[in-house]
Amino acid sequence: MLMPLDMLRAGEHGEVAEVSGDPAWVHRLAELGLREGSRLCVVQPGTPCLLQVANGRLCLRGSECSQILVRPVCGT
C-alpha cells in the first residue's frame, strides 16, 4: 500500500516508491539519497519533517513530503 510520506508517524519506516515534482528537485533529492527504493525513518513528523536516510538526516517541508510516496515497512 502506497501513502504520502507525511502520513508516516515518528519512528515508522518506509521505502520510497515514487518522488514527483519539479525534475530539478527530484534530482536533488536523489543526490541526497532520497530516491525510489531507498529506505527511511521518520524522526520528526510535521513541518519541518526530519528523516533519517542512509547515514544522514534530511529535513523537508510538509508540501514536499506529500510529493513522496512510500511503502510502509517494518523497522530495519
What does this structure look like?
With 76 residues, the chain is α+β, with helices and mostly antiparallel strands. It has a single domain, classed as Ferrous iron transport protein A (FeoA) (SH3 type barrels), CATH 2.30.30.90. The chain is built from 2 helices and 6 strands. Strands 1-6-2-3-4-5 form a 6-stranded antiparallel sheet. β4 and β5 form a beta hairpin. The radius of gyration is 11 Å and the shape is globular. The model has no long low-confidence stretch (mean pLDDT 93). GO terms for molecular function: transition metal ion binding. Keywords: Iron.
Number of beta-strand segments = 6
CATH superfamily: Ferrous iron transport protein A (FeoA)
Which strand order spans the largest sheet, edge to edge or round the barrel? 1-6-2-3-4-5
Helix content percent band: 10-25%
Which CATH architecture? Roll
Number of helices: 2
CATH topology: SH3 type barrels
How far apart lie the N and C ends?
Answer: 18 Å
Taking Cα atoms only, what radius of gyration do you get, to the nearest Å? 11 Å
Return the structural class: alpha+beta
Taken together, the total number of domains comes to: 1
Shape, please? globular
Average pLDDT across residues? 93
Topology order in helix (H) and strand (E) letters:
EEHEEEHE
Give the biggest sheet.
Answer: 6 strands, antiparallel
The CATH class name reads Mainly Beta
Strand proportion: 35-45%
